[in-house]
Amino acid sequence: MPENALCRAAVGEIGLPGAEFVKVGMAGATHRGKSAAIAAKLRPAMPWGWLGALVASVFVAAFAFPRAQPQAQTIAGDEAPVLAADTALGEAMRAGDKTAARRLLALQFSFIDADGKSRARRDFLSELKSVATSPAGDAKVRLYGLLAMVSGHRNSAHDAEVFFLDIWAKQKGTWRALLIQEVMTTTSDAVAAVTATAPATEPQQYECRNPCQTVPYRVRSPAEQDIILTFQAMEKAIIAHDAAEWGKHVADEFVRYGTAQVPVTKSDRIAVIERQKEANAAVTVGEVETMRLAVYGDGAAMTALQAMPDNSRPPYRAARIWVRRNGQWQMAVSVHTDVK
Q1: Which end of the chain is more exposed for a tag (fewer CB within 10 A), N or C?
Q2: Cα–Cα distance, 272 to 290 (Å, whole number)
Q3: H-helix or E-strand containing 194?
Q4: Which structural domain range is residue 227 located in?
Q5: Would you give the DSSP letter of residue 123?
Q6: Could you report the per-residue pLDDT of 44-86, keeping only the tens digit for each?
Q7: Given its phi and psi angles, is residue 218 left (phi above 0), alpha (psi -120 to 50 degrees) or beta?
Q8: What's phi and psi for 195, nearest 5 deg?
Q9: pLDDT digits (tens, 9 = 90+) for 154-202
Q10: What residues form DSSP beta bridges with 338?
Q11: Is 214 left (phi over 0), alpha (psi -120 to 50) or beta?
């Protein structure tokens, strides 16, 4: 949705309660004016006039303030339609119901299985039942404006437990799936420990051009430009061992999920960067081969195919969710699935 349209919608939602509040205030002012006139004529009754004004003020406040409460309830209630749509898509997959599934998919939809194989919307629908997963028992929903994520654990089509990230976007008032991505994580921290503390007494010089200076993507809006610049700032901070700079661009709820890796929180990642600095470790970041970016209000979804320049790991498909808070874009989640 264009940001101008979103702004108009936001102003419309905020304007009505504000107008009602102004009307209440004007009514209160009129009431106080009449009370003052009566008090001027009937001075012996002045104490009673003030008491009446006080009662009226309490009465107005009692009816004015509850108007703000339904807004918070509505925001929280938006999670239910997202979860319902996610559940319906899973049921359609297991039933092989292409018609029902098609209605729930965005035109830009893609499916990434645990082996890193990507399927566009048409291919996904043609293989619908063969890629069906089991229902998730721990599905969680998080909203980012007109973008939402459903995540948790379920069994893949090959009956292997995977972490999943389902990204949904609100398009023309309807929640539609943008992405389903699976990744096989691990509960062992052995891999994380090795990669976090690998020393490099004489680190090789590494000039990061992609993605630090350029990425193969043509931005289409100021919001996309801001997200790309933020992404590049984060990658530069990793190479420079600058944990503070990296942390500025990451949401507090951030978690990174990777193939054969333990989930990494924001504090975990900061600790890794600091240990790499102490060990003077050489660090490289994945070069972007292809990228897609979609902005929906204060939320955005970025997907990319990346490869390490030193071939230290297989190419991987990355899905990232961004959220704009206080005018600044922050990464909220990152999922990396190795391509086998």
Answers
A1: C
A2: 27
A3: helix 190-197
A4: 190-338
A5: H
A6: 443 444 444 444 443 434 444 333 333 333 334 689 999 999 9
A7: beta
A8: -70, -25
A9: 999 999 999 999 999 999 999 999 999 999 998 765 444 444 444 445 5
A10: 316
A11: beta
Q: Which of 75, 97, 129 is the last residue of a domain?
A: 75
Does residue 45 share a domain with residue 107? no
Clarify whether residues 206 and 280 are in a common domain. Answer: yes
Give the total number of structural domains in the chain. Answer: 3
The reported pTM is 0.75
Contacts with 56 (C-beta within 8 Å, 6 or more apart), sequence order: 28, 31, 35
Residue type, 183: V
Question: Longest Cα pair distance anywhere in the chain, in angstroms?
Answer: 93
268 neighbors 254 (Cβ within 8 angstroms) = no
pLDDT recorded at residue 202 = 54
Instruction: List Cβ neighbours of 174 (8 Å cut-off, separation of 6 or more).
Output: none
Q: Is 38 left (phi over 0), alpha (psi -120 to 50) or beta?
A: alpha
Same domain, 230 and 316: yes
